[in-house]
Each structure stands twice: as structure tokens, then as C-alpha cells.
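Researcher: Here's a chain I'd like modeled. Treat it as a single chain, no partners, no ligands.
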Amino acid sequence: MTTPVVFDCDGVLVDSEALAWDAWRAVLTRYGTAPSDADIDVLTGRTEADAYDHFARRVALPRPRPFSEELAIAISRRFAASLEAFEDVEDTLEALVDRDVPLAVASSSSRWRLALSLSSTGLDRYFQVVVAGDEVDAGKPEPDVFLEAARRLGFSPEDCVAVEDSAAGVTAAKRAGMFVVAVQRGGSADLAAADRVVPRLTPASVVLE
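Model: Modeled as a single isolated chain. C-alpha cells:
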């Protein structure tokens, strides 16, 4: 049986983290704060709602919906101008598709942001299933998004490989029961709980032989 592979998006497939945090910084500065390196370490891999709550405890922010709309404009502009897939992604996905490996995305991003990331980089064509953070009850580090991806693929989570780059994502995938491959792309995330840590994506790095 071919083992399905469930990818995180930001930081795994697309080089979006710096762009997204630049957008957060631009919006939060209007309200008297900005994300520190410590904030980014804590919040990477978590949902927009988690990040909003984190900063709303520090300063007065608009209500969630208008803040989210403001943030969406800032992120969309940056993604439209600069978002790219990592250079190892397309060759890896092409090889997996050629092997008939079922592929999914399980992301903490909201549906609109995830759709923008995949469509603007042309990666959407590779995936049978895409699950966003606002489609499940609880975001990473809870396992909901990975469990839903496995359900939609029609496989048991224990029969899937998850590919992550954040501590929250690794925890979520492990809680779902998946074999976890962590891609260390130069960040400071603690990925020690992953079953396998790799410096880049290759077909061999995400396939269980």
C-alpha cells in the first residue's frame, strides 16, 4: 500500500513565514506593538486566531474580524509580490505524483491564505486534499487538522507521513499518530520529537520504504 504524505504549507512548501510576519509587524505597529523573535518562535505553526489572542493580551486591538481583514490585505500584497515555493518542492511533488502517492496539505493557515499560497505558486494541482486551520475545531499543536486530512484521504492517520517545520506542527502530527518528517530550513524550531529530521525535501526523505 502506498503511504500518503500530508504536508504543512508555510515553511515546508512555500517560503512564506518572513513575508507573513512582516505583514503582522506592519499591522501591529499601528496599534503600538510588534512581534519579537520570542513571539515568532512561540506562534509559528499556530493559527491566526492564536496569534491574535496572544497580541490582544498585550495591547488593545480591533475586534477579530476587522483585524483579520486588515491583516489579510497586508499578507495578500506581500504574497502577490514575493511568495515562492522552496526550490526542492516541485521536483519532490512531481516524483511523488509519478509514484501515485496520495498527497494532502494540513495547515494552520486560514482557508483564504492557504488557497492563495498554493494557487499563486502553482502547487495546488498536486494535492487531492487541502485542510485549513479554520476548518477544524482546534489548531496545531492539537491533531485535528491532520486527522481531518487523513479522513478525507480515506486512510488511517497511522498509515500517513506528515511533513512539518514547526514544533507545534510536529506535536500535532505525532498526536494524530502519524510518522513525522521535520524539514529544518534554518529556523530555530525544536524538531527533536520528529521521527526523522532532514535538511531539504526529496522523495526519499518523505517516503517510508
